[in-house]
Amino acid sequence: HVQLVESGGGSVQAGGSLRLSCSASGAAYSRSSSYCVAWFRQDQGKGREGVATILTGDATTTYSDSVKGRFTVSQNNAKDTFYLQMNSLKPEDTAIYYCAAHWTWSSPWCSGGFSQSFDYWGQGTQVTVS
Description:
Blueprint: E1 3-7, E2 10-12, E3 18-25, E4 35-42, E5 49-55, E6 60-63, E7 71-75, E8 81-86, E9 95-103, H1 107-111, E10 120-121, E11 125-129
Parallel strand pairs: 2-11
Antiparallel strand pairs: 1-3, 3-8, 4-5, 4-9, 5-6, 7-8, 9-10, 9-11
């Protein structure tokens, strides 16, 4: 089993910044392997939207058009904590943000990650931009 725990959400004014973290752990999580880790968000009454992905094996990243140039996804050296740096926040970025993970070494799989099926999900963290 792999556990994902998000943190770092909160309330911020438009134009501000937040950094979300996603910590991965559990007996089934291997830091020497490769996972596609994705950030999704969902606001009330709206569908789930993919925001960014990172392939832990080679750190390649993908972003949705709505956040490109404003958000940055990264990982720590131990490859067990993943970050979403969010700058120039807008009210439309308000949502619950989730991280998700799927075991893969495939960059094409991860680049198409927003429509893929992920095995593990965190509980989410609220981001409110006013």
